[in-house]
C-alpha cells in the first residue's frame, strides 16, 4: 500500500492544476498578463469541480487581482491565490503567487507590444492519511477503521517556493482586432513534492497560448484560441473558439454574450457561455469526458465558473485655461 501511494506521489501529485476557461484566468495563464487591460484594477474569481460521478469531487478555486503601478504605468503587478483539493485523502494544494510584468512598446504607435513577466509562488501541499483505507485494517471479517495501519508516514505536508517566467506578445491595430500569444515556464527551480523522504521534484511546466479576436461585422466577433501545455510526460492541447455578439455598446452602456465550443486532446470536449455586463464578465463551461475513464464517469467531466470585475477610476479632465465669457 505504501508503494502505491509513493507511485501516486511521483506520477500524479507533481502536476499543476489546469483550467478549461484558460482565457478567463489571465494571471494564471501568463505573468506577462499582469496589469494590462482596459481599466485600473481587475479582480478575477474561478471555480472548477470535476469527477463528481467517479469519486469525491476534485474542487479548485482561485482569486486574483492585478493593476499597474501609479508611478509607472508600464509595470504591472498581479497577486493570485488558488486552492485545489482532490480525492479521498483530501490531497490539498494551496499556492500564493506574485506576478510582475513590464510593457515594451515595439512600435511608436503601441500596435506591437511585448510584456515579459516573472512569477514567484509559495506552494503548500498536504494529505490526510487517516482518510485512506489499508489492508491491515481488515480484521478477517470486515473493515475496522480503528485498527492500526502499520504504515510509516514521514510527513503529511510540504511547503516550498516556485519560480516562473513568461512573456506575452500582442498585435492590436484596433480595439476589436487583436492577436495575442504567450509562452511561460513554471517550476523552474524544481520544488520538492515528496512525502516519503525521497525527493520528488515537480516537473517544469511549459505553457503556450494564442488568442485571436477578429470582427465579422458590426455586432459579431470570432475569438479562436489554442493552448498547449507540457509537464513531464503529460501533454494538454486545447483548441476551440468563442463567438461574441455585442448587444449594445453606446452611451456608456455595454452588453455582450459569448458562445464557445472546445476540444481537449484525449480527454474531453466542452461548451462555454459567457456575458459582459458593463464592467462585469460571467462565464460557465462544462466538460464532456471521452477518455478511458468513460465507464466510470459516464461521459461527465467537470463544471467551471469564471467571474471578472474591472474597476476604472474617474479621471477628471485637466483644464489648462478657461475662456472668459463674452459679457466680461
CATH architecture: Beta Barrel
The first-level CATH class is given as Mainly Beta
Beginning-to-end CA distance, first to last residue: 94 Å
Give the strand order, joined by hyphens, for the main sheet: 1-2-3-4-6-7-8-9-10-11-12-13-14-15
The SSE order reads HHEEEEEEEEEEEEEEHE
Count of helical regions = 3
State the major sheet. Answer: 14 strands, antiparallel, barrel
**Rg over C-alpha atoms, rounded to the nearest angstrom:** 24 Å
CATH superfamily: Outer membrane protein transport protein (OMPP1/FadL/TodX)
Description:
- This protein has 328 residues and is mostly beta strands.
- The protein has a single domain (2-311), classed as Beta Barrel (Porin), CATH 2.40.160.60.
- It is built from three helices and 15 strands.
- The chain has helices spanning 2-11, 26-29, 294-297, and strands at 41-50, 58-69, 72-86, 91-102, 104-105, 112-126, 157-171, 178-186, 205-215, 220-231, 234-250, 253-264, 268-277, 280-289, 300-311.
- It has a 14-stranded antiparallel barrel.
- Strand 1 (41-50) and strand 2 form a beta hairpin.
- The chain is elongated and about 100 Å long.
- It starts with a helix and ends in a 17-residue tail after the last strand.
- Mean pLDDT is 85; it is low at 1-13.
Amino acid at each position: 500500500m505504501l508503494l502505491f501511494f509513493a507511485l501516486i506521489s511521483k506520477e500524479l501529485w507533481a502536476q499543476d492544476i489546469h483550467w478549461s476557461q484558460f482565457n478567463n484566468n489571465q494571471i494564471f495563464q501568463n505573468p506577462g498578463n499582469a496589469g494590462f487591460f482596459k481599466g485600473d484594477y481587475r479582480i478575477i474569481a474561478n471555480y472548477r469541480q470535476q469527477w463528481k460521478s467517479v469519486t469525491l469531487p476534485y474542487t479548485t478555486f482561485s482569486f486574483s487581482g492585478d493593476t499597474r503601478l501609479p508611478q509607472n504605468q508600464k509595470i504591472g503587478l498581479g497577486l493570485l491565490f488558488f486552492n485545489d483539493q482532490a480525492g479521498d485523502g483530501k490531497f490539498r494544494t494551496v499556492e500564493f503567487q506574485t506576478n510582475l510584468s513590464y510593457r515594451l512598446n515595439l512600435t511608436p504607435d503601441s500596435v506591437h507590444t511585448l510584456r515579459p513577466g516573472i512569477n514567484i509562488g509559495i506552494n503548500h501541499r498536504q494529505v490526510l492519511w487517516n482518510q485512506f483505507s489499508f489492508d491491515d485494517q481488515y480484521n478477517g471479517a470486515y473493515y475496522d477503521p480503528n485498527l492500526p495501519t502499520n504504515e510509516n508516514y514521514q510527513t503529511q505536508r510540504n511547503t516550498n517556493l516556485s519560480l516562473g517566467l513568461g512573456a506575452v506578445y500582442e498585435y492590436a491595430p484596433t480595439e476589436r482586432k487583436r492577436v495575442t500569444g504567450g509562452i511561460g515556464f513554471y517550476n523552474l527551480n524544481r520544488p520538492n513534492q515528496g512525502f516519503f523522504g525521497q525527493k520528488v521534484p515537480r516537473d517544469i511546466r511549459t505553457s503556450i497560448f494564442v488568442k485571436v479576436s477578429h470582427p465579422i461585422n458590426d455586432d459579431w466577433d470570432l475569438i479562436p484560441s489554442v493552448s498547449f501545455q507540457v509537464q513531464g510526460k503529460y501533454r494538454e492541447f486545447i483548441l476551440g473558439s468563442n463567438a461574441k455578439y455585442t448587444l449594445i455598446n453606446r452611451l456608456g452602456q455595454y452588453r455582450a454574450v459569448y458562445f464557445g465550443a472546445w476540444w481537449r486532446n484525449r480527454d474531453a470536449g466542452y461548451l462555454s457561455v459567457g456575458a459582459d455586463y458593463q464592467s462585469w464578465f460571467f462565464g460557465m463551461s462544462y466538460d464532456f469526458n471521452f477518455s478511458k475513464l468513460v465507464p466510470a464517469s459516464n461521459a461527465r467531466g467537470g463544471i467551471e465558473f469564471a467571474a471578472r470585475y474591472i474597476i476604472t477610476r474617474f479621471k477628471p479632465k485637466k483644464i489648462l485655461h478657461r475662456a472668459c465669457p463674452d459679457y466680461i
